[in-house]
Amino acid sequence: MSDAQNTPAPLSPAADGLPPAATPLTRAALEIDEYVAGLGWDKPARLFALVDSARLRRTDPAVAKQLGLEDETAGNLTPVEQDELPDGMALDEFLGTIAWPDMVTGCALVVERLMLPPGAEKSRPAGATEKQLADWVANHPSRQEVRITAAVLRDGKREIALRLREKDLAREVLTGPDLVPGLTKALLATFA
User: Fold this and answer.
1) Integer Cα distance of 136 and 159 in angstroms
2) Is residue 100 within 8 Å of residue 107, measured between CB atoms?
3) Structural domain count of the chain
4) Does any domain span residue 1?
5) Which entry of 37, 106, 114, 135 is 20 to 30 Å from 75 by CA?
6) Cβ of 91: how many Cβ atoms within 10 Å?
7) 14 with 31: CB under 8 angstroms?
8) 3-class DSSP assignment, residue 59
9) How many CA atoms lie within 13 A of 147 on its CB side?
10) 75 in a domain, yes or no?
11) How are beta strands 77-81 and 104-115 bridged, if at all?
12) 93 inside domain
């Protein structure tokens, strides 16, 4: 589905017990978060195409069957995992190489990052290089390891599912469209 993709890999169904989500995009972000959570932490970034389930069933029944979409799922989005991101390529550089076919309604990206709480910027070392800043964040006593699932649609809708490593439970996942605006903006640019 992206230039780097060879064969779609289906996701396992979302785990029971996930809270109902208000929109198909939120449900897709939470489904991807739960799938990746089952793989554990300290994993590379993962990219997913989001396709309209009903449209996929109509246009490509064989793939829909492979993904377990034989029953009615109108209005739902099906995440299809893409090939691994290339080693050694910067994420923003990689995103600039993606070209999605019309069948793809949206996309999602999962990355692990370190985050600091609000106010931590006050103690940021002035004039530090990028490497020095990365070391400062990595060694900051208040740092939090997070997994970010950023999902967007062609029409500009966006959603984030954010999971803290120290609260690694589905019911503790934070959601919202503006939690990591730079990442959703970069994903939306893949549809430009």
Assistant:
1) 29
2) yes
3) 1
4) no
5) 37
6) 14
7) yes
8) helix
9) 29
10) yes
11) unpaired
12) yes
